[in-house]
Amino acid sequence: MYMLTLTKEEVSILKNVLTEYLSDLRMEVADTDKQDFRNHLKKKEETIKEILGTLARMES
């Protein structure tokens, strides 16, 4: 496991970047016909959601 120390500003920026990327990723998933690639993108989406959840808990 890795440990990363971030300032509040860095956490906020990282959340914004990941949220924007997540939106783009969802559009890519919707436009993908190949099931294997679609599954790969959905796994990526779930991982990003988990990271966003961790970041949200850090702000609390």
Walk me through the structure.
With 60 residues, the protein is mostly helical. It has one domain (8-59). It has helices spanning 8-31, 35-59.
For this entry, what is the oligomeric state of its chains? single chain
Count of helical segments?
2
Radius of gyration: 13 Å
Helix content: over 70%
Order of helices and strands: HH
Structural class: mainly alpha
The total strand number stands at: 0
The main β sheet shows up as: none
The span between the termini is 22 Å
Defining traits:
60 residues, mainly alpha, 2 helices, 0% strand, elongated
Blueprint (SSEs and pairs):
Layout lengths: L7 H24 L3 H25 L1
Helix pairs in contact: 1-2
Give the gist of this structure.
This protein is mainly α and 60 residues long. The chain has helices spanning 8-31, 35-59. Helices cover 82% and strands 0% of the residues.
